[in-house]
Amino acid sequence: MSKVAAVDAQAAVIKIGDIPIRVFTDDRDFLRMVQDRYAGFLSSETHAGIDLRLDLTAPGQISSEEEVRVASDTVRWSAERGDFRLDWDSETGRGQVRQSANPYSLDGVLRILHTLVLARRAGFLLHAASVMRNGRAFVFFGRSGAGKTTISRLAPADATLLTDEISYVRRDAEIYLAYGTPFSGELAKIGENVSAPIAAVYHLVQAPENRVALMTSADAVRALLESVLFFAEDAELVKLVFQSVCDLVGRVPVYRLEFVPNRTVWDLVL
Amino acid sequence: MKNCYIARSPMVAARQLGSEMVIMSATDSTLFSLNEVASLIWKSADGATPLREIVNDKVCAEFDVDPEIAFADAERLVGELAERGLLLLTNEPAGPSPVEAERGL
């Protein structure tokens, strides 16, 4: 994947996981902030399947919803959180966002949009770190505090960070790929915009000693589903995500990785 | 519960994983897991076969269980699954789907 800065004065195309989203705004200062925030994930493509118009408001509450709330009426989706509101038509790909000039609000919008789009493209976002090494990706998922950032920080020098927070998992023909994302966690370092076939998935558990054990398919599916990012209460999309998680588990080994936070844990990774 | 017919709800996704049937409710994302006997009943829930026949022909044929005890257990199970919205219970066999009816099936 190339890293090409967008040249359009009013729009930036942010391409994550091979899915381009074009954002328009009349505010050139905010556009520059967006370009800085997503540097490495900007594309020079002029056409994107998803177009978002950003209407910037004064700082303050946009919605009374504290948690993300996503609703749909067939093809028309809406999503709100305290700091933004998104209205998006999945048929035309066009949508509108109301938010203040804060790139992190746009981060929330992009995460939601990608979960909706990915569900229909055999993929999902996962609370997980992922790292690429020797052309293969390794995904480490777990609840908050399980060690996603820690294992990313401990990765060998020849490893490439895809993300320390939100992994982007998507099927391509018969394999599953992990893509780099700009969604960062405590490491505050955005991932590289590259992708690789997933060689193994690890369920992180901090423990007094290092140990790795293959999980049963049912346990792996249950654990993974707890870490999948999914906002929409839409039956069809829920079913699609469930099937994708089951499909991943059928193709990629999933291990329970108990580890102490030092570099020796990487000796257990394939 | 005489002439009880059971059908899988269209609002669930299910996958056989090893010896377990893992089921997810698409309405609230709740996960359920069925053991081998329950999985067999689940897979046989076509809406057209009476529960009694499923127990006699499938469960008792595969597992060494008393038919009456197995039927009582099966009634309890399908009642619980129906309460959770995973199974649909009827006293009549399910008719053909609208598509099948249109094709004259």
Description:
The complex is a heterodimer of chains A (270) and B (105). Chain A is an alpha+beta fold. Chain A folds into 2 domains: 11-119, no CATH class; 123-268, Phosphoenolpyruvate Carboxykinase, domain 3, CATH 3.90.228. Chain A has 5 helices and 17 strands. Chain A has helices at residues 28-37, 103-119, 148-153, 217-227, 235-251, and strands at 11-16, 19-24, 42-43, 50-56, 69-73, 76-81, 84-89, 94-99, 123-133, 136-141, 160-163, 166-172, 175-179, 195-206, 211-214, 228-229, 254-259. The radius of gyration of chain A is 18 Å and the shape is globular. By secondary structure, chain B is α+β, with helices and mostly antiparallel strands. Chain B has one domain: Outer Surface Protein A, domain 3. In chain B, a hairpin with a 5-residue loop joins β3 and β4. In chain B, α2 packs across α3.
Supply the key terms.
heterodimer; A: 270 residues; Phosphoenolpyruvate Carboxykinase, domain 3; 2 domains; eight-stranded mixed β-sheet; 5 helices; 17 strands; globular; disordered N terminus; B: 105 residues; alpha+beta; Outer Surface Protein A, domain 3; three-stranded antiparallel β-sheet; 40% helix; 28% strand
Write the layout of secondary structure elements.
The complex is a heterodimer of chains A (270) and B (105).
Chain A lengths: L10 E6 L2 E6 L3 H10 L4 E2 L6 E7 L12 E5 L2 E6 L2 E6 L4 E6 L3 H17 L3 E11 L2 E6 L6 H6 L6 E4 L2 E7 L2 E5 L15 E12 L4 E4 L2 H11 E2 L5 H17 L2 E6 L11
Parallel strand pairs in A: 2-4, 4-8, 10-14, 14-17
Antiparallel strand pairs in A: 1-2, 1-3, 5-6, 6-7, 7-8, 9-10, 9-11, 9-12, 9-16, 12-13, 13-14, 15-17
Helix pairs in contact in A: 4-5
Chain B lengths: L4 E4 L3 E6 L2 E6 L5 E4 L1 H8 L2 E5 H12 L4 H17 L3 E4 L7 H5 L3
Antiparallel strand pairs in B: 1-5, 1-6, 2-3, 3-4
